[in-house]
Amino acid sequence: VWCWRSGFFARTEFGVSSKTTQEKKLRPDLEQALSSLKELEEMAAKGEYEHFGVRKKADDVVPYNEVFAAITPGSILAVFARSWQLGHLLLAMMARDCLERSFFTTDIDDDEPLQKNRIAILVIDASGASPPQAVPFSAQICLLKLVAARAQATSFRQGLDIGDLSLDARPFLLSVPDALRIHACIGLSDAALRNTLAMAAGKSLIELNRRAEATLRRAVAAGNAHAAEAIVRVYATLHTEENKRTDELLDKPLSLPEAGINDDCLRALGAYAVLYALFSGRLAACASQAVDLLDDWLRRADSFAFRVSSWRDAANHPATAAAGPSFAAFAGKKAITNRTRFRDNLLPLALDRHNTPLATATTFDEANPDGPPVRGLIAHASNEEPVAEEVLPEKSLLYHQDFALALDHLADLVASCHSPTLRLELLQFITGLDTRWFRDLLLSSVELARDAVHLSAPTASIRAALSITANNQQT
C-alpha cells in the first residue's frame, strides 16, 4: 500500500509507470514522499495536513489523502459517500454496482436479486465527529423511487466526470416504468437497460420503439447524453437480435424534439433516428426517392441555363456555407460529375425496384413534411416529364438486412460531404434529420449508430465487401 500525507498531491495516475499490479513503479519524487497508514491516522486525529512540506492545522476539514493499493474482491469492505446529499449517495451506489460487476462472478441481474451480501455504502462525517453510518438497502430503494417520481427529468451526471459508472436495476425490484425513468436521470448498465426494455417490449417491435423513444426523450430533456447513448446501443442490439419481427413496419417518421438540446444529446438522438429509419425501411425508401430526384436533376443538367439557376438557388439557400458553391463547378461539368457519383453511391442503400416500397410517400415533401426544404436546391426538378426508370442493383444492402454494411456505407457518404449543399441535405432527408445535424454532427450520429450495430452484429468491413470509394470532392 502506497500512501502520502494529507495535502500532498501525488497524482498517481501520472506517477505510476506500469499498469500491471506486479510491476508497478513510482516516480522517484513520489517514492521519497511516501508515508505510512499509522502516520496518516495520527495526522487525521490531530487535524493536521502538509502544505509544501510544512505541517499546518486544518480549520475545518483536513484535505484528502491519496492511498494507492491493489484492489481484490476480498479487500473491498464498503463504498463511502461524502454526505447524505442525493447526488453523493447515487454516486456511491453507482460505484458499488461497478465494483460488483467487475469483481464478482455472480450476475446481479439474475432472477434471484442479490439484496444480501452486497458491498455496504457508508456515509462519512468529514469532520470526524461521528463514525460512518450505513445506508440500508431499503433506503437505497426509496432514493431511486424518489428519482423516478420526479415530474421533470434531471440528470445527476451533469458536472461529474464519472465515466461509465451506472446502476444495476434488478436487485432493487423496480417496475419497468420506474427503471426506465431512473435510466434517463442516472443511467443503468447496458445489461440492466437491455433486460428492462426487453421485458417491456415482449415480442412487439412497435412497443420496443415506443419505450425506447420515450426513455430517449426523457434522457435528452435531462441532458443525460450517457444514458441516451446507452439507449442507442441497446436498441440496436435488441432489434438486430429480433430482426424477424418485420411484420410490424413503422410508417411514421420519428418526431424530433425542438431546439435547446446540447450537441452530445443531439448526437445520440440522431443515431437513434438513423437506426429507426434503417430498421423501419424508411431509409431505403427515402434513398430511392433521392436517387429519383438526382436522376431528374441530371437529366436536365445538359442545359447551361439550368445549371446556372441551380447554382443560384444553392448559393441563396440558408444551409449553404459562407463560401458558397463554386460557380465554375456548375458552369462546367464538375457538379454533374459529383452528383452522378453521389447518385451512384446511393444505390446500395435504395430499395430494390422489384420489391414493394416500405413507405407510402410519393414525393420528397410528403416523405419529409417536417424536414428541411429541398426544392430550392433541386432547381426545376418538377414532375412535368416522366423520370427515366433506373435499374437499381438486383438486391440492395438493405434487402438482405445488411444493416452494419449499410451504415458503413452511409458513414462514408456523409464523410465525403465537405460543403452543406444538395448532397448533405439529401442525406439529412434520408436519415430523417433536420438542419441541426450539420455535416460533422450528422457524421458523428451515423458513426454512433454504426458502432452500435457492429457491436450487436459484427461483420466484415464494407470497404472489402463493396470496394466503394468515397467522393471527396466538393460540389
Shape: elongated
Distance between the termini: 62 Å
Overall pLDDT metric: 75
Which strand order spans the largest sheet, edge to edge or round the barrel?
A: 5-6-7
Q: Give the SSE string.
A: EHHHEEEEHEEHHHHHHHHHHHHHHH
Question: Could you give a short account of the major beta sheet?
Answer: 3 strands, mixed
Number of strands: 7
By DSSP (H or I, 4+ residues per run), the number of helices equals 19
Helix content: 40-55%
Beta-strand share of residues: 5-15%
Radius of gyration from the CA trace? Answer: 28 Å
Class from helix and strand fractions = mainly alpha
Low-confidence stretches: 107-113, 244-249, 354-395, 458-475
Structure description:
This protein is mostly helical and 475 residues long. It is 47% helix and 5% strand. It contains 19 helices and seven strands. The chain has a three-stranded mixed beta sheet with strand order 5-6-7, with helices on one face. Strands 1-4 form a two-stranded antiparallel ribbon. A hairpin with a 2-residue loop joins β2 and β3. α8 packs antiparallel against α9 and α9 runs parallel beside α10. The longest helix is centred in the middle third of the chain and has 19 residues.
What's the topology here?
Layout: E1 2-4, H1 12-15, H2 28-32, H3 37-46, E2 48-51, E3 54-57, E4 66-68, E5 78-81, H4 86-103, E6 120-123, E7 133-134, H5 137-148, H6 176-185, H7 190-201, H8 205-222, H9 225-241, H10 263-280, H11 282-300, H12 304-315, H13 327-331, H14 334-346, H15 364-367, H16 403-415, H17 422-431, H18 439-456, H19 462-466
Parallel strand pairs: 5-6
Antiparallel strand pairs: 1-4, 2-3, 6-7
